[in-house]
Design a protein that fits this description.
With about 240 residues, the chain is α+β, with helices and mostly antiparallel strands. The chain folds into 2 domains: about 70 residues, OB fold (Dihydrolipoamide Acetyltransferase, E2P) (Beta Barrel), CATH 2.40.50.580; about 140 residues, Trna Endonuclease, Chain: A, domain 1 (3-Layer(aba) Sandwich), CATH 3.40.1350.60. It has 3 helices and 18 strands. It has an 8-stranded mixed beta sheet. The longest helix is centred in the last third of the chain and has 15 residues.
């Protein structure tokens, strides 16, 4: 445990190192980026389906991890991207472990199962407490505007489907929670991205009215570890 810039306690959730810095050049598709590594352009794996346009642009600095697996098409994986004076964690492959550490701290002594099929969807966690069950879905967020964290950064039918599943859980007299992993520090609140994904924003509002608990978690990556800074509210 340490303290953030506001003097509040922050909790180390996961150590994630990197091996090389690079300069981002291009993103030919969702999963591949071209990065200048020591003067040579190389393909790197992007483990995040978001557009990330405010992070993955030409000449921006990125952090990379070397991957030594013979079946991989790329030798490097993107870990984080520079945004002003901070590193923004941009690898959704670690979201499960990060969110699991938070869920275990929030629901101490509860039964927690991962990747549970509920209806036609598969939710990230199902928490079994004395008072009943709680379905938990996790989303990662890196887009912000004027201190507001926004999700998603692209239209998402899958996200709408997950919110509908959370509302269905409430219909069956259980509870539901949407956890937002906000990978940008100094954010004041969270809101659905109405401009980019109006259909998601519409069902988000219905889910909140129905009783789906929305808990945005503020996170920071310092180049060595992912830290949990606390929670922020809805705008």
């Amino acid at each position: 445990m340490s303290r953030n810039s506001h003097g509040q306690n922050k909790i180390e959730l996961l150590k994630v190192g990197w091996d090389r810095k690079g300069i981002f050049l291009d993103r030919p598709n969702r999963f591949i980026g071209i990065v200048d590594i020591d003067g040579s352009p190389e393909k790197v794996h992007i483990h995040d389906p978001g557009r990330l346009e405010e992070l993955l642009y030409k000449e921006n600095e990125v952090l990379l991890k070397h991957v030594d697996k013979p079946d991989r098409k790329t030798r490097w994986e993107l870990i984080a991207s520079r945004y002003e004076n901070q590193w923004v964690f941009t690898n959704s492959g670690y979201h499960r472990r990060i969110s699991e550490n938070i869920v275990e701290r929030i629901f101490e002594n509860a039964g927690i199962r991962a990747e549970v099929k509920v209806g036609h969807s598969r939710l990230d966690f199902l928490v079994e407490e004395k008072g009943g069950r709680k379905g938990v879905e996790v989303k990662g967020c890196t887009l912000t505007e004027n201190g507001v964290a926004l999700f998603p950064d692209a239209p998402t039918e899958r996200g709408r489907k997950h919110l509908q599943t959370l509302m269905d859980i409430i219909d069956s007299e259980d509870s539901a929670m949407l956890m937002i992993l906000v990978f940008r520090k100094d954010i004041r609140c969270f809101a659905p991205n109405e401009r980019t994904a109006p259909r998601f924003a519409e069902i988000f509002k219905k889910a909140v009215e129905k009783g789906v608990e929305v808990r945005p978690m503020l996170l920071e990556y310092d180049g060595e570890s992912v830290w949990w800074l606390g929670e922020i509210g809805l705008c």
